[in-house]
Amino acid sequence: MKISYSPTHTSLMVGHRRQKYFLCVGLTVVVLVVLYYFYSGSSGRFGNLSVLSGNAGTNLPAGVSFLTTYDNSVKFDHEWLKKNCLQSFSQTEEIGNIGKLVDAWKNAPRRDCRELYKTFSDIYLVQDRSAPLVIPDTFAPKVLKWLGGKQELLKEAALQPITSVENLYSQESTVFNPLRAKRPGAGGGATEETKKFLAELIQSSAKECDFCNYKINTAKDPFESVESKYSLSVSNTFKVEKFHSLIIWRRHDPLKVNEEELLDSMETAQKWFLRAHQNDEEYTIPHIYWDILPRASASQVHPHLHVTLARDHYYARWAHFHMAAMKYAADHNGENYFSALNRIHSALGLSVQHGNASVLAYVTPAASYEIYLFSKTPCKDLFQLLYYSIAALRDDMELYAMSAGMVFPKLGPFTDESDLPTIIRLVYRGPAEARRADIDSLMLFGTVNVNVDPYVVIRSIKQSIAKRSA
């Protein structure tokens, strides 16, 4: 039987083949583009966690049609501010003089100085006041002892200058009393007792360490774990979230984590986020929490990170910042709140830029030595800057117990202009061997008193960057 082929059928078959061909080519291009953006760019091996992002969402403040994304660049630094806006200011750079600095700044004749001052004053309120004190002769010897035997400090105690700084959007507030910072030991730092305590703690905890024996003493996620040269993921046994795991280092000593090991753990965490998100795409908000040593509430001495993936909204503390950012954007034609914070801290001399990331010695710290780190997306610059900051505290200043919290841009097919950028907070938790808690009723229910000058913090971080990034 002879079979004939219709030209019409032939053209249809060719058309189907062309469609399949173009579909395959299109899918290949999409995959290559995703892989390119994940593995290339300034992030290096740290891909943008929003690599799957598509069209922007619409969760913008009322009356705002567009919200700018975080911009790490700063136009005016502290040297520019001093040269052009603070000619009448001759005080030393310390937080106790910030009120005088602000007074000089607001009266600067230049327009760009006044515009930058408005950015500051729209967010921050600085107030100075004096606290008089009468010290009886019978009590003076004890106070003098508290002040390290320095008579000049005893005289200062009679009329103590107090500076308060309040963030009008986030409602954060911190009180500084320079005299409290001048007491011996007020800034922390390790004693020989501290070092001996830590050496014994680290050595003894290694004997029955669950994380050193993670293959038999840890739980697993329902999806494949992530393993790398220096770190790996295990599931947290007692969870606070559907996706809640741990990134543990292979090294037991938490005070020996180096730059390469820290970068490695951050990469492991990002891979875990993507795997958890692929397991349930409704969970989109990545977090990391890190406590170093029992003093900072670490349940195990062995270094580890808590990683969680949240659904629907940020956890409460981050949500508070998100609300502040939305209110600021609504009041300032969509301007990015975190970009403004970076510009302000840079002008005050309390910020350092490192590539695509910035570190701030926060002007309203929640605890001593608190720093903030910002970047638009997670990147190598950010995590290097985190390491330089940790090294400044841990290795240079011998401050060992620390806590950190991190939040990252949302995962998923849709980005949102109102999303938080990448934010890291790092604080010192007090002497490792101390029995006294590092938080009191004033901090819990009132305001924060911090004894460490942010200018001291930023100088240490600058020195660390110069020493370790060379």
Word description of this protein:
The chain is an alpha+beta fold and 470 residues long. It has two domains: 78-181, no CATH class; 192-469, HIT-like (HIT family, subunit A), CATH 3.30.428.10. It is built from 15 helices and 13 strands. The protein has a nine-stranded antiparallel β-sheet with strand order 4-5-7-6-11-12-10-9-8, sandwiched between helices. Helix 10 packs across helix 13 and helix 13 (380-396) crosses helix 15. The longest helix is centred in the N-terminal third of the chain and has 33 residues, at 7-39. The radius of gyration is 27 Å and the shape is globular. The termini are far apart. Residues 1-14, 29-43 and 48-57 have low confidence and may be disordered. This is Galactose-1-phosphate uridylyltransferase. Keywords: Membrane, Transmembrane, Transmembrane helix. InterPro entries: HIT-like_sf (IPR036265). The chain crosses the membrane at residues 21-39.
What are the SSEs and their pairings?
Layout: H1 7-39, H2 78-85, H3 98-106, H4 111-123, E1 124-132, H5 140-146, H6 151-156, E2 159-167, E3 173-176, H7 178-181, H8 192-205, H9 214-217, E4 231-235, E5 243-249, H10 259-279, E6 283-292, E7 304-311, H11 316-331, H12 337-348, E8 351-354, E9 357-361, E10 371-375, H13 380-396, E11 402-407, E12 422-428, H14 441-445, E13 448-449, H15 454-468
